[in-house]
Amino acid sequence: MIVKADDTLNQRIVDYLDEEKAMNLFILGDIENFGYKSDFQDIWVDIGNGGDIKGIMLRYFGNYLPYAKESINAEGFSKVIKDGPPLEMLSGKKEIVEQFQPVFSFTAKKDLYFAELEEKNFTMKGLGRDDLTYAAVDDADDIIEMHNSIKEFQRRETARESLVQTLTTKTGRSYFIKKDGKMVASAATTAENSRSAMVVGVCTHVDYRQQGLASRCTAVLCEDVLNEGKILCLFYDNPRAGSIYKRMGFQDIGMWSMYSK
Question: What are the GO MF terms of this UniProt record (predicted)?
Fold first, then answer.
């Protein structure tokens, strides 16, 4: 039986997700930061006949994140998706997300490597940061403009809204570098919580690549988050990007899939 979760289920949900806490960083972080009563977020739980949890799904704006240990009630959770706000993206652990393929007609699919960084493995401490800026909400439009100039980035209708939400609530941070009066490189976190953070939005304007700018933004960002006692996770989809992150100390722990319509 799939039910909409509230505070009474919180501890059981957290215990269930904690068994793969890195993979569940988004769900755990959003529950910790926004709880069960936000307009832009819902948590749904599949409860078995014996009262045990069989699966969980988070909705954050138009992004749906399902999770289960092995198999998930894709048909039941799909009905929840169809009855809710329009689906922009379905994402999560590859083995779980692919079970939704027979239900939806996805027009785009992307599989990503999922990597984790712990403080003991971090190798790039003490890099220069004089030209780095910690982003404020007023910088959101410039960040989105730079992202839109990069063909590798997926565009989502709620991207700006989500970024402003992240910066306003301090559930993420962004560092950037400006040259010649424009933003040319950045790196950010999202879904920050008391234990972890996800690195996102690592990019460099096409005219300023091969200078190590985004790598430096990322390294400084990681150092600051690690100094707060948290771990970091990120996605990457090509060996070159993976080699850069692995030089920082990131280690692969699985695969992540993103499906969109």
Answer: acyltransferase activity
SS (H, E, C) the chain: CEEECCHHHHHHHHHHHHCCCCCCHHHHHHHHHHCCCCCCEEEEEEECCCCCEEEEEEEECCEEEEECCCCCCHHHHHHHHHHCCCCCEEEEEHHHHHHHCCCCCCCEEEEEEEEEECHHHCCCCCCCCCCEEECCHHHHHHHHHHHHCCCCCCCCCCHHHHHHHHHHHCCCCEEEEEECCEEEEEEEEECCCCCEEEEEEEEECHHHCCCCHHHHHHHHHHHHHHCCCCEEEEEECCHHHHHHHHHHCCEEEEEEEEEEC
Position 156 pLDDT exceeds 80: no
| Tens digit of each residue's pLDDT (9 = 90 or more) over 102-137 | 999 888 999 999 999 999 999 999 898 999 999 999
Q: What pTM did the predictor assign?
A: 0.81
